[in-house]
DNA sequence: TTTTTATTGACCGACAGTCAGTCAAAGGAA
DNA sequence: TTCCTTTGACTGACTGTCGGTCAATAAAAA
């Protein structure tokens, strides 16, 4: 046998090497040559590890998401109320520390919308389901603890999608310059409607 | 002197001539050559009327949107309750008759997210504000008529963005195959929370 | 050596966008 | 009427760029 490269690890290395490239530019303006230079490898080698540009974004999003989820999980565990948990859940859309992931997520949605290839739909679906179930769990626990009314259950998908909706409005228009206030205002309003009286 | 062409009209003609091309394919897969053939003009002529592919999509969206708004306005005027008006407002996301505009809107969001050029942000902002104000008016009238509680005012942007959020989830994932049910379910839940008792 | 794996950049085809040139209509001069 | 000139509309061959391929090479293990 010859050298055995840890393919998975090298994929991560290449992806991370050109993270700034993707964070600072949109996927359409980044070229494979730039990627190869950034990663210090030949253009052909890029294709040994990735089928196309999009796959690099997927890899990057995956890596950053795992790290992001770990931190988020901790923070949410510490939150006192369901309302607070939901608010923390949405900090992704405006917190400074998530800026890179957010920039990639933007590209990511853009790709998924314009090039609806099966793999992308599949990956996007996986991410969506993961976060939706997490979000469902938070709401479900709130209902169990009688913090919020069972009606919260009927708002899960709506509330969840609202985040992306506001995010897109904020990213693609001049409206909503302060998405943080907007999100928290909406959450507060909805929670004032579904929180039970006996909440602490 | 030579022939003077109505530039604005010809822009519309060219855009409409390649409508199907854009409806059936995503903007990235449509080529300028295809556009030229569809419109029965030379490739260079395309650039006499449009700066790039994106501009053609803008033109198309504008044309179809005007027609769409006219019809929607009629329907909403006929609706009995605020809840019904809101539901009709959201039919865009699933009604068969709006399928073409929806397909273009998808591309449109994708472009705005990945190529945030000033013109695009501007156009997107205009559309967003137009619909948001329309939506605000519906809610405001509902509050005036005491159909819904003043809290509805605090939910305007949230409710409004929810539509795009669900739309994207439905377009970019396998989740939410039935967006119609999902939207109406969410609207019903929220309205059951903000509708006043004295509603007819 | 030989085999296997990793790497590479020259190469190719496709595409967006340009531009030098063609064409047709209109007006004016004779 | 005829012919010449002007001018805007139109064109497709051409150029540069980019994504993606592949034959050649390197280099380690057997």
Description:
Two copies of one chain form a homodimer. With 200 residues, chain A is mainly alpha-helical. Chain A is elongated. Chain A contains ten helices and no strands. In chain A, helix 1 crosses helix 5 (53-78), helix 5 (53-78) runs antiparallel to helix 6 (82-90) and helix 8 packs across helix 9 (152-172). The termini of chain A are far apart. Chain A has one domain (53-194): Orthogonal Bundle (Tetracycline Repressor, domain 2), CATH 1.10.357.10. The first copy, chain A, is 74% helix and 0% strand. At the A-B interface, helix 7, helix 8, helix 9 and helix 10 of A face helix 7, helix 8, helix 9 and helix 10 of B. Chain A binds a DNA duplex (30 and 30 nucleotides) through residues 1-5, 31-33, 36, 41-48, 52-53.
What descriptors fit this protein?
DNA-binding; 74% helix; homodimer
Biggest protein-protein interface?
A-B, 50 and 50 residues
User: What is the CATH class designation of chain A?
Assistant: Mainly Alpha
The computed structural class of chain A is mainly alpha
Total strand segments of chain A? 0
Could you state the order of secondary-structure elements of chain A as H and E? HHHHHHHHHH
- The CATH level-2 architecture of chain A is identified as Orthogonal Bundle
Q: Given the C-alpha coordinates, what overall shape of chain A results?
A: elongated
- Average pLDDT of chain A, rounded to a whole number, is 92
**Considering the protein shown, what is the CATH homologous superfamily of chain A?**
Tetracycline Repressor, domain 2
**Low-pLDDT ranges of chain A:** none
Question: Regarding quaternary structure, how should these chains be classified?
Answer: homodimer
Q: How helix-rich are the residues of chain A, as a percent range?
A: over 70%
CATH topology of chain A: Tetracycline Repressor, domain 2
């Amino acid at each position: 046998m010859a050298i055995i490269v840890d393919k998975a690890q090298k994929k991560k290395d290449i992806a991370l090497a050109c993270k700034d490239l993707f964070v600072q530019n949109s996927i359409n303006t980044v070229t494979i040559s730039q990627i190869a230079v950034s990663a210090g490898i030949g253009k052909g080698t890029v294709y040994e590890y990735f089928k196309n540009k999009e796959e690099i974004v997927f890899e990057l999003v995956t890596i950053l998401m795992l790290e992001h989820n770990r931190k988020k999980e901790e923070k949410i565990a510490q939150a006192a109320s369901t309302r607070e948990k939901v608010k923390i859940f949405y900090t992704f859309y405006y917190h400074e520390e998530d800026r890179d992931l957010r920039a990639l997520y933007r590209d990511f949605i853009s790709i998924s919308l314009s090039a609806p290839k099966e793999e992308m739909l599949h990956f996007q679906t996986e991410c969506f389901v993961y976060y939706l179930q997490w979000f469902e769990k938070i709401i479900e626990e709130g209902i169990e603890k009688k913090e919020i009314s069972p009606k919260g259950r009927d708002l899960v998908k709506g509330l969840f999608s609202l985040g992306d909706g506001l995010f897109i409005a904020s990213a693609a228009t001049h409206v909503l310059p302060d998405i943080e206030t907007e999100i928290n205002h909406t959450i507060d309003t909805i929670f004032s409607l579904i929180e039970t009286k006996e909440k602490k």
